[in-house]
């Protein structure tokens, strides 16, 4: 009964008109922009696959790609909120270096002296320490921007120099290594991936979550007699979601541990090595899981909380947000604190992956992060942007890098291509927006 | 009438504010009773909008008193003003262009679910209800406000002001962006809100917008109050004289800005 009411509701925004493609798009309520980006990504992948002689679309490369993207994509989710409010954060790369350095000293030199090497609490204490540092640094920059009214560009440009210098100063330029055994798992590698079984379990959980979410939003719409998506559209959405999850896990599980490591592991655990070598799946890498979790949480924060709503309202019209009674300054500080926390997570992943903290770590990351957000559809004039878009943007950037490495392109050429692609992508986006208006 | 008996809803007394040496509002006093419409008139730059922004918390006064229900009120920002039931519809409409109508209606006061997350569905349902009352033709709930026409944006701004049981409503040039039909709708709405006991400040530089709706008019010139009058005691021409020359007619109570003869 309710279903019928909903469909006959005269306020239905989903007018079923036009070509089958338009009908499909409006029924599924998919974002055309996002689909365009996924299409571009697919083109890049297929293009590189052929240009590199079949090296790109392999489990090994895709697995590595996922790990390489993790750090930048985590920071890009925060950069979206920063840019949406018409600010910018140029300091994330240097902040990453500084936080990674202090976390390195903490876990490699301070905590082992107190707790003993390899103590299981070291990685947690280090991570908490990093998060607090990130929040403090971000908060401090946020306060200067929001309350002292120094433009974000200048504050974070200053921060870029300050934190890079501080990272150097902290250990007089010395590289800190090796890092804590458990902390290192955050960086991926054979040990830092969850393996075959857990990957499938997680895939199951993700599929259930997708189904529950679709059902829940359907029920919510029915509660207020809003128009529903047609059932076939829901089915397609669910199938797409399941497909992405299952496909990713298939790929990640198809990438085995390197032979030597697998043999060592087999010997240590008394497993007989079969003919043709032992096949131990990597499964999903821990940094990738962290990035996915960050993406989900940040999407939730951006779309389902008051804070997120205020961020977008401030980006659309700062004066209106202020007049609506939003404490815009405090929201700005919170955005930069959040950005700092995300930088700390990214710093953990980057340093764990390298198994060292160096003072050059994160150099130029700010530009990759901003580029990822912008390629992902975040408008520099404020008010527009999505978390998913930024993460796909990060994947596009990383795919370009990795593809050119596989092709054996010289590194000066790589920078040139990335730079041109960035400008081209934003130009395309401008065209799209002008047409959409 | 009974204005001597009841306490005024709002009293602004001897309010002054200066911007870089320019006294935008200079010793202005004005009051408003429940169920009353007061038209605040004056040229562009006379200080009307500035005075009213002090009441709505957008500006902080340099000196003077604000009393609500006879009690001293502390209004330092828009949040404070809203806590007193003061709602404002700004000349610029002050809507966030990039979010939809429901998000704008509830901006700063979002409905949340038991878990503390945004209850978009409930907000949209409520928005449909309120907008249905104001502007039954309004259908575009899912689109960002920037896609709406001037009149539709105006209805969003008005709906936002009346959604939270305002007691004092400030409308700054409410019909500036509207066609004749929508202007008449706003007029009906003002009468309806007035009958509910809401006090309304109507701000305009155009006397025709205001004269028929207002119970009293208050005219400002160069940041000072020229005079206040019941609309039944003065003619439109006399009010025009107040606006243009600062000449206070016999039916009005002169203020500090009245021309000295």
Automatic annotation (TrEMBL), chain A:
InterPro entries: ABC_transp_permease. It comes from the Bacteria. Pfam families: BPD_transp_2. It is found in: Cell membrane. It is a multi-pass membrane protein. Part of the binding-protein-dependent transport system for D-xylose. Probably responsible for the translocation of the substrate across the membrane. PANTHER family: ABC TRANSPORTER PERMEASE PROTEIN YPHD-RELATED-RELATED, XYLOSE TRANSPORT SYSTEM PERMEASE PROTEIN XYLH. This is Xylose transport system permease protein XylH. It comes from Pelagibacterium luteolum.
Automatic annotation (TrEMBL), chain B:
InterPro entries: AAA+_ATPase, ABC_carbohydrate_import_ATPase, ABC_transporter-like_ATP-bd, P-loop_NTPase. Residues 10-247 form the ABC transporter domain. It is found in: Cell membrane. One of its GO terms (cellular component) is plasma membrane. It holds the Pfam family ABC_tran. The keyword NAD does not apply. It is a peripheral membrane protein. One of its GO terms (molecular function) is ATP hydrolysis activity. This is D-xylose transport system ATP-binding protein.
